Every structure is written in structure tokens, then in C-alpha cells.
Amino acid sequence: MKQCLNARIQGRVQGVGFRYYTEMKAKELGITGWVCNKADSSVEACICGTPEQLKAMQQWLKQGPASADVRQADFSASYLPKNCNDFRIRY
User: Looking at CB atoms within 10 Å, which of 1, 7, 59, 89 has the fewest?
Assistant: First the structure.
């Protein structure tokens, strides 16, 4: 059964390819949802998958790509978004 989490990632996470690498990792893990930049320089994501998929994605988001400097990653339970069949970057 799919579960969903909202993630808020802070640090040097914009302008470093964070969304692109998040999309690649999500697709590798079979995660659905989305990722976007926020006006406060953080990145927000909605990740949906099995508990095992979510655990792996959470671990990855806490570090991000080598070009990023993640200082904080917070996660909270969320609802499955409508039409959540893949993973996309939101603009």
C-alpha cells in the first residue's frame, strides 16, 4: 500500500541540480510524487511509495546530490495527490 510524505529540505539546495537528481532517484526507486523550489530557498517534495521505498528516499533526501549541502530535512505524513502516477519536477 502506498504511503505519502511531504518533505522540506533546507540548506544549499537550489541552483545545484537538487530537483533533477531528486527526480532521477525517485524514478530509480519507483517513487511517485513531485519536487519544487520554494521562495524561501528550500526545496519541497511529495514522495509516495511503499514504506521501504520511502525510507530509502528519505535517506537520500537527507544528503541530496554531491553538489548540495543539506542542513535540514523534515518529513510529515501526507495524502496521495490526484493523478500521482509518476514523479515530476514542478515549476
Answer: 1
12 annotated active-site: no
- Pick the catalytic residue from 19, 71, 85, 88: 19
pLDDT (tens digit per residue) in 42-85: 999 999 999 999 999 999 999 999 999 999 999 999 887 777 78
Q: What is the pTM of this model?
A: 0.94
The active-site residue out of 6, 8, 12, 37 is 37
Q: What angle do CA 85, 87, 91 make, to 5 degrees?
A: 120
Residue ranges of domains in the chain, CATH in brackets: 3-80 (3.30.70.100)
Q: Is 19 a catalytic residue?
A: yes
